[in-house]
Amino acid sequence: MEIEKEKSVRVAVRVRPLNEREKASPRPSAVSVATKTHQVTVRKKTYTFDRVFGQYATQKDIFKGIVQSVVDEALAGYNCTIFAYGQTGTGKTHTIQGSLSPHDENAGIIPRCVNYIFEKLQATKSEYSVRVSYLQLYNEELIDLLGENKKGKQLKLLENANRGGVYCHNLEEVTTLTASHVFDLLEIGSKNRIMAETLLNDSSSRSHCIFTIRIHSKESSIPGEEMIQIGTLNLVDLAGSECVGRSGARNVRAREAGSINQSLLTLGRVITALVDKLPHIPYRDSKLTRLLQESLGGRAMTTIIATLGPGKC
Ligand SMILES: Nc1ncnc2c1ncn2[C@@H]1O[C@H](COP(=O)(O)OP(=O)(O)OP(=O)(O)O)[C@@H](O)[C@H]1O
């Protein structure tokens, strides 16, 4: 069943399978899922979402069930964002990125989107180009994961005087014409990401990573008239949400937790304000929401995939 397209913000939940430690534990799982009614029960409390995916859901199920319709919107010229949100180890990176080999069953949302976009463009558009960028946000600091040539050039968020909104100055945006070129870039970006995370001395993500695909295509549905469509798809792997409640953290970890707090809380406030159609949307309160400002408001489509562990250990 397709989920409502009219909604500007949709929330899905994905519960990951038990890991080896959890399989060995005699404690029962605290989370159960009813896919037909879109409900998740956590310790006797039941919550309803736009879609829910249980532990047997495949990467393909996620793509077909919730992502493909979003990519179609981006191909039609709209701004769309998909967030993976959840605690460390619940499957955010597996869901957003997974395997980077496009035909692997574990290929996540990014490689599946890249393949789908190029297949669609090749089949339906006479002229198109695709631009990609890959940005990491750690402690409110911006890091270009594709920016080999721009070492030493500092990234900055600047107001866009011509068309409003905010853009990231000095961010490498690479123009590509084939899916295989994007996969080469993704390999570079994910190596740079692992390197940055190793430097932070932590294998779990304490940063937000945003892979952006901007699709330019020529539309000529009215004879004699040509229109350039520009659609954007942001695929965001958020930092672990458990930092919000973290206490007793000191020095570097306290700064990280504070910065993750600030950006996740602001993201929550922005999304709530958009859903409630409030006059003031607090985009400016964090770099993450400033950066995504153009892709969150208006006709934009926002999808949150909340990842959950099975709740036992
Ligand atoms: N749906 C799933 N099916 C199979 N394995 C999964 C699934 N979700 C997560 N995993 C596995 O669980 C482990 C943790 O997942 P992952 O690294 O994606 O979590 P994360 O939420 O991104 O964590 P962090 O915030 O620490 O980066 C990985 O080994 C991953 O392969």
UniProtKB/TrEMBL annotation:
Quick one: which residues bind ATP?
86-93
Assigned GO CC terms: mitotic spindle; spindle microtubule
Origin, by domain of life? Eukaryota
Q: Which InterPro entries match?
A: KIF11-like, Kinesin_motor_CS, Kinesin_motor_dom, Kinesin_motor_dom_sf, P-loop_NTPase
Q: List the subcellular locations.
A: Cytoplasm, Cytoskeleton
Which GO terms fall under biological process for this protein? Answer: microtubule-based movement; mitotic spindle assembly; spindle elongation
Keywords of the record: ATP-binding, Cytoplasm, Cytoskeleton, Microtubule, Motor protein, Nucleotide-binding
> Where is this protein primarily located?
cytoplasm
* Positions of the Kinesin motor domain: 8-313
A single GO molecular function term of this UniProt record: ATP binding
Gene3D superfamilies, sorted: Kinesin motor domain
Family under the similarity heading: Belongs to the TRAFAC class myosin-kinesin ATPase superfamily. Kinesin family. KIN-5/BimC subfamily.
Write down the PANTHER family for this protein, in alphabetical order: KINESIN FAMILY MEMBER 11, KINESIN-LIKE PROTEIN KIF11
Query: What is the protein name stated in its UniProt record?
Result: Kinesin-like protein
The species is Thraustotheca clavata
Give the taxonomic lineage as stored in the record.
Eukaryota, Sar, Stramenopiles, Oomycota, Saprolegniomycetes
